[in-house]
Amino acid sequence: MNNVDLPGYLKNSKLLNNLSVQRLLQNWAIICSLAVIVLSLTAVITNDVISSKQDLIDQTAFTIETSVRNLDQILANFELRKNNILAAITSKQLNSYRDRSILEQGIQEQLSVLSAQTTDLKTAEPVIRNLEDNLRIFLAHDAALFLNIADNLLVKNQSSQNNINEIERLSGITSALNASSYEIEANLKRLSNITDEYVKMLVTDSRTISQINLFVVVTVSLIVIAIIAAGISLVIYRIDEPLSKVRVAMHDLSHGDMSRRLVESTVVHDEFSDLSLDFNRFAERTQSLFDEVTDAKDALEDSERRTRAILENALVGIAHLKDRRFISVNRKFEELFGYERHEIAGLHKSVLYPSEDDYKALNDAAYQLMANGDTYHGEWKMKHKDGKHFWCEVSAKAISENMVEDGTIWLFEDITQRKRSEAELRRLANFDTLTGLPNRALFNDRLEQGLERTKRQNGLMALIYIDLDRFKKINDSFGHTAGDELLIIISKLLCECVRGSDTVSRLGGDEFTIILPELQNISDAGKVAEKIIAMMYRPLSLKGQEIIMSPSIGISIYPDDAKNIEALLQNADSAMYHAKSKGRNNYQYYTQEMNAEARHRLDMESKLRRATVNDDFLLYYQPQVDVKSLVVTGYEALIRWHDKEYGMVHPNQFIPLLEDSGLIVSVGEWVLRKACSDIAQIRKKNSDFQSVSVNLSARQFMDNSLVDRIKMVLHETGVSPEHLVIEITETILMDETERSLQILKELSDLGLKLSMDDFGTGYSSLAYLKQFPIDVIKIDQSFVCDLHSNPSDAAICEAIIVIGRQLGLKVVAEGVETREQFNFMRDRSCHTIQGYFFGKPAPMEELVCNVNSKSLIMS
Question: Does 814 share its domain with 848?
């Protein structure tokens, strides 16, 4: 210890140093308390002694005071008596004081009392002496007074004997008073002597006791002060030194020195020893925690670097906001919105929104959710720094749950392209890709809404079903591209014919529908149909040529004709087919009779499906005759269908249904396989046989496995390719020219012959004949049937024959039914004739193998 110098016996005391600080403080507190008690007792005892002496003096003073009061009382009585005597003399009442013995006895009693009271007098010498002097003076005065009175009485009453007697008595009383006065004086003398001696003794004792008491108090006080100072010094020594060490160690520890440790005493086991042990443990734990914190800090810094790298390289824009103002953003945010970090910091969030309304709508919803601890998700248009708008997917979350005032985190992802894709998907899902009109899905939705609205209003609604007449011819003549252009033109014309509240839809192909809600009269639907027919009757320019289209229109009315969507659409479709049966280019309202026709069509389609599964079709063969030799050199395989209910169904009735339903692919493959299977039998019946022609539909031609299928059929049936002719129409060649050319070349490479059917009815491009590997062209029967009455048909037939011969192609004329037609073809050197003139299509059992009308023809 540096600031307190202790005696060696205290500093080196084993007893004191082995005591714990707590025990030391407790013992020293007891010692100090005992010292204080001793000092207090000494002061109390001394005070008692002094108080006793003082009480004695006070008692003596009290006795003297009492005696003086008694003497005063005696003198007062004496004065009273004297006055009474004077009064008695004056009033002649001396009889009350005549009894001297009584007065003398009273005086003696008073003096006795005074003598008894003054026996213990100690300190009344000055008072007694003063009293003696005063009493002597008073008595002498009174004696003289009485003598004077007596003389006066004698002078005034000399003649009275009684007065003389009284005077004598009065003189006796006076003498008695004088005697009493002497006795009092003696007593006072004796009292004065006693008092003088005792007072001297008391003064001497009091001075001695006071000096002793002062010495005792001072000595005890010094001892107590020394004891307390020694105790305090020892306590300071025992506490300050270890505290200094602890303070230095704590100072080093607080300044980062983790190596400082306190020396643990093996001798003294007190609180500071425990404190040293605890401090060392604390320092070691602090060192451990410091190491952990350092490691955690390094890990945190590494994590922050990774997190910062992740945030900076995130694929979405991230922003930290507080009080709706930007605090920080990442790199993607800068790219999305065009703001640099120093520009956006501190700006209000509203700068990102196209309008104040958009900002309020988004943020009110977002902050309400975040205030409840939820996450906000939404899609909004945002504003770039340059003012451009783009779509963003926005997410937001409060940093502290339910405490948006602590800040929020916002994520922004550019979804403009996705929105465009979604819009495109919605457009594709609801609108026709070619015309932009609502497709079947959207049509059904709007039709349902129209029905519900009309039902609530108790009104009328019409559904118009439109089919373009002979649209297939457009595709066949001009190609599908031209057909698509025509559909676009027609769709625009239809939109011009209706109101803004009406819906024009394209169901597919060349079929359109129009929904007419809120009709005033049923006839209003007919007026719209008439307007459509008139608009389409105007010539339309297509591929540099003018064409005229005609529609077949069916109309059904809600609620008169149907109560639901399916029935309304079915009835309109039935009315449309009825318009076609009426010669096309007209409109028909639905009637109940049309249901039978529609049911017949559906029933026939159902039976066709069963016939495909049950193999109920037949294959007929129509002979093809060589013009020069008039022998049957080939056949065209023609499909026939015999139904148990309908009987033999004409091909014009069921083949369109096969094409519409898609069954034509499987049925066409069956025809090919059946024809190849019959070739061996045909060759046995007809020795002049060369080939069988099989028609290929457009749908079959679109099959990517067409060539492989034909190869498989030829291999399974063992037919030589030279005996098979594949007939195609111009429509097949007009679409996807390169693909068509590739397929035809592959078929030609197999050894098959290719025939162009119905030549002249389509586009009839001579480039096809030059570009494609065509072997045969067939003149359509529509040109043959009227060639004698129609010079144009005759010219067309003659031109086709000339073209075929010039190109080295075989020309087949189909539909020859009369001798005039035959002669025309023979005279123009047509190669082959096919038609009823030589034979109708017949089953294998009735196969035509030769010509029996040669003599008739020659004639």
Answer: yes
How far, in Å, CA of 281 to CA of 275, rounded?
A: 10
Same domain, 673 and 547: no
Tokens coding 788: 């004698």
Specify the pLDDT at position 699.
78
CB 772 within 8 A of CB 741: yes
In a domain, 791, yes or no: yes
**Predicted pLDDT of residue 309:** 76
pLDDT 10s digits, 348-387: 888 888 888 888 888 888 888 888 888 888 888 899 988 8
Last residue of a domain, one of 202, 227, 243: 243
Q: Check whether residue 485 and residue 407 sit in a common domain.
A: no
Per the structure block, which two tokens stand in for 406? Answer: 């602590």
Q: How many domains does the chain have?
A: 4
301 within some domain: no
Separation of alpha carbons 638 and 640, rounded Å: 7
Using 50, 70 and 90 to split pLDDT, how confident is the model at 126?
low
Q: What is the pTM of this model?
A: 0.43
Q: What are the tens digits of pLDDT across the range 483-493?
A: 888 899 999 99
Do 231 and 83 have their domain in common? yes
Number of H helices, E strands in the chain: 28, 21
Q: Are 514 and 466 in contact (CB under 8 A)?
A: yes
Domain that holds residue 205: 19-243
Q: What is the dihedral of CA 165, 170, 172, 175, to 10 degrees?
A: -160
Pair of tokens at residue 176? 């008695």
Question: Does 182 lie in the same domain as 121?
Answer: yes
Residues 560 and 638 in one domain: no
Strand pairing category for 376-383 and 325-329: unpaired
Quote the tokens at residue 742. 């590739």
Structure confidence by residue, pLDDT tens digits, 577-603: 888 878 888 999 888 666 666 677 777
- The average confidence (pLDDT) of the chain is 77
